[in-house]
Amino acid sequence: MLKSKRAFPHGNANFKLREDLTPLLRELIQDLPSSEKVDYLKSEVFSKFVSSDTAPAKVRQSRAIFKWLCTEMNNEATNDRLLAVSPEYQIIPGVQYQSFMSRVQSIVIDVIGESVPEKAVFGLYSSGASTSRVRTESHSSDKYTGKAHITERAIQWFDSLLSRSQLLYISRRFGGYQIVDSNVMFTVPKNTEIDRCACKEPDFNMYLQKGVGNVIRNCLRRVGIDLNDQSRNQSLARIGSLNDSLATLDLSSASDSICREFVFQALPIAWFTYLDDIRCHSTVIPDQGIHVNQMFSSMGNGFTFELESLLFYAVAKATAYFTGTPGTISVYGDDIIVPTQMYQDLIIALEFLGFSVNTDKSFGSGTFRESCGGHYISGRCVTPFYIRKPIETLHDLICIANAIRKWSSIDLNTQSFSLMDSILDEDGYRLWCLLATKVPKCFWGGYDVEDNTRLVSFWKPHKSKRLVPKSRTKRTGLGGYLFWHNLKELSPNAASVRTSTLSVFTGRFRSLRVTWDEKVAARIFASEILEDMSPG
Q: Of 361, 423, 497, 532, whose CA is between 20 and 30 Å from 173?
């Protein structure tokens, strides 16, 4: 009989679990009967787990910095190689380097044009930390007032923008700027063993970078590359796993491996000059001081993602042209999909240009493909869920339980939920029960696995509740007003966006009554119907 608590302790939606569920869940997962889908889950589910039992934060950071510096050593060698390479060198069999790079630049020009459009300088502040502001004070509205940072080479471009934008002129009057030489490295958890490096950019550089990134993003959409949608890559990966027609490539440290010389040779001179002026040429590394960069831009730069997508698209298209390979090419950052016939040639070209193909996540043959978070075996979606930290709170319980339910609901050929085929994979039932029985019954009855405020279940309580994040309201003042004007300049539809106040999540939750509804979970466990679901 499946039983659950009648109420949660003292009505506290933030109660801590008394028992450690994570090791028990790990055991249950490992005990699941073998299948392609289950075996893949076992290999992946804890691959991104971070806790006090994994490598200490300082060790993970040190490893990440060491890896970043090793990438920079490779970047230095690549810059030297691309500077000295003979035009007649065959970058792929039968194709001279000069011809190949000429084709790459031609493709780039077809996408973004030879000159930088005027609208490229009109950007937007992101909500990420900058060199002048810590994460807790980094909302976009905060960056319009107070002293901001900028590199010397970017000043000319920002001053030109100030003359055309009244709101930015006002912003400068209320703070001014301070010249800095570098961006600042920080790390974030990546997996159990190592962090991921990124860099905080100077405020005004970030503004300009976001502007040019948005322009490249819009230009790529015209050739079928939509960086706002990962579903195309996921669909193509599934097709590749079905008929072996398409290969998927993933690159290691891709954005950190884009070298200055490669960008110089691939971009029109006007674009290179502008991007080179608004990027950071050096980085402050924790405990190590200033490092002069061999890479062109790092993670954290406002145009890095769009630039790498453009360059990988151009290299893939050039490879297809010279190898005479027809078929679909799709790119999303460093997730690349190409016809299988050109897989090896593309790897050769990418490696000469300084990139390292991640052989564990790249597939040019067989029945498995992975791209943009979609994992497929012979057309069947086997995308795992991930447990990234110990399960300690009610919100953790609901998140993982709903993720288990979603994993159990993936059918043979699609990720969509079908009412005609509404029975979940029973492999996930024991896992779901382990967590569901710890969730107070009043939070049951959800129907959307993407909504982590309620537990998705077949049984519904008479009086339902959901978790609501607690937040405090912060007035944005003049910065919010300028932020609103900036949004309005970029898009008239943004004029209705409220920017005068900001809700700041406190890290805690409260419970809220839910009006009774008749919606039910799209798919259910067979055992879930047979179990006695009453609270008694």
A: 497
One domain, residues 210 and 341: yes
Q: Is 3 contained in some domain?
A: no
Q: Which of 351, 377, 403 lies at the terminal end of a domain, its last residue? A: 377
- The pTM (predicted TM-score) of the whole model is 0.90
Put residue 527 in one of left, alpha, beta given phi > 0 → left and psi -120 to 50 → alpha.
Answer: alpha
Percent of the chain residues topping a pLDDT of 70: 87
For the stretch 288-318, pLDDT in tens is 999 999 999 999 999 999 999 999 999 999 9
Domain boundary among 357, 377, 397: 377
Contact partners, residue 325, CB within 8 Å, separation at least 6: 319, 338, 339, 341, 342
The answer on 510 and 424 residing in a single domain is: yes
Opening angle at CA 305, ends 117 and 112, nearest 5: 30
Q: Is residue 303 part of a domain?
A: yes
Strand order in the sheet with 356-357: 330-332, 335-339, 246-252, 356-357
- The residue behind tokens 């097709």 is 239
The H or E element that residue 470 is part of is strand 464-475
Do residues 21 and 83 both lie within one domain?
Answer: no
Each residue of 151-201: pLDDT tens digit? 999 988 887 776 666 555 555 555 677 899 999 999 988 888 899 999 999
Distance CA 42, CA 39 (A): 5
- φ/ψ of 493, rounded to 5, equals -65, -20
Confidence at 481, pLDDT banded by 50, 70, 90 = low
What would the two tokens of residue 461 be? 């309580």
Structural domain harbouring 428: 9-45+384-530
Same domain for 112 and 25: no
Does 280 lie in the same domain as 163?
yes
Residues 148 and 255 in one domain: yes
- Exposure string of 18-56, with b = 16+ CB inside 10 Å and e = fewer, is eeebbeebeeebeebeeeebbebbbeebbeebbeeebbe
Question: pLDDT-based confidence at 14, cuts 50/70/90?
Answer: confident
